[in-house]
Amino acid sequence: MASLLALLSSGLWGSADYHAGKLSKKFPSIAVLATSQAIGFITGLILVLATGAWSAQAFGSDGYFFAGACAGLCGYAGLMSLYAALSTGRMGVVSPISSLGSLIPLAYAIIIKGDQLSTILSIGVAAALLGGFLASGPEVSQGLPLKPVLLSLSAAVFFGFALVFMAIGSESSALMTMTMMRTTTLIIGIGIFLKFRHIGGLGKPELPILIFIGVADFAANLLLGVATTKGLVSLAMVLGSLYPIATALLAYKFLHERLHKVQYVGIAFAVIGVALISTR
Questions:
Q1: What distance in Å separates the CA atoms of residue 259 and residue 265, rounded to the nearest whole number?
Q2: pLDDT averaged over consecutive 10-residue blocks of the chain (280 residues)?
Q3: What CA–CA distance (Å, rounded) separates 116 from 237?
C-alpha cells in the first residue's frame, strides 16, 4: 500500500510540475505558484471539514503544526525556485538536478529514523534514484547555464527539507500537516498579492489548469505523507521522487519533446528499482 501511494504521489507531482512549468512560460512563476497554492489550501480545508481531522494533536513533539509550517515554507521556496528554473532553463537541466532533493529525506530516514534496508532493497533504492535522475533527461551538451542550475539546486535543497518535515508532521496527521503547509503558503501568497496588487495576468481561461495544479500538488503531498506512515520512510521518499518521469512523459506526449536514449535507460532503471522495492 505504501509503495502504491508513493507512486501515485509521483504521478500527480510530475503532472502538476509539467503544467505549472508550461504555464510559467507565459505568466510570472510567483503568480502561478501563489494561485495554485491557494487552491490547494481550499482543497485541504474541504477535506479537513469533511473528515474531522482537526482533532489531531497540533503541538508537542508529535504535533503537526510546526512541522507543517516548516514544510510549507520550504515547499513554497522550492516551488518558486523550480518554476523559475523551468521558465529560464531547459527541462533536461532543471528536472534532474531538482530530483536530487530526495537524497535529503533518504538520509534522514536512514540516519535519524534508523530505517534498515536489505541488500535487495538497497539495490532497488539505488536503481530507482538513478532511474528518476536519468529519466528526466540530463542534458549537458549545450553547457550548464548558471542561473537555472543554481535555481534547480535551491529547489532540491528546499524540497528535501520539506519532505523531511512532511514525514515528521504526518506521524500526527498527514492531512492536517498538508493543510498547515497550504495555510502557510496562503499567508505568503496573500502578502505577495498585497504588495503587487495583481495576479500576473492570470484569468478565467487559466482557472481550470490552476485548479488541477493546486489539487494535484495537494493530493501528491497528502498521498506521500500517508505513505510514510504505512511503511519505511526511506522507501516512500524514493518512490515519491520519481515524478520527473511523469514530467518527461507528458512533455514527450504533448510538447513533442523527443526522449533521449538516456531517458529510456532511466525509465528502465526506475522500473527495475520499483520492482525490487515492491518485493518487500
A1: 10
A2: 85 86 79 85 92 79 88 86 72 70 86 84 86 70 66 88 91 91 88 74 83 92 89 83 79 76 82 77
A3: 14
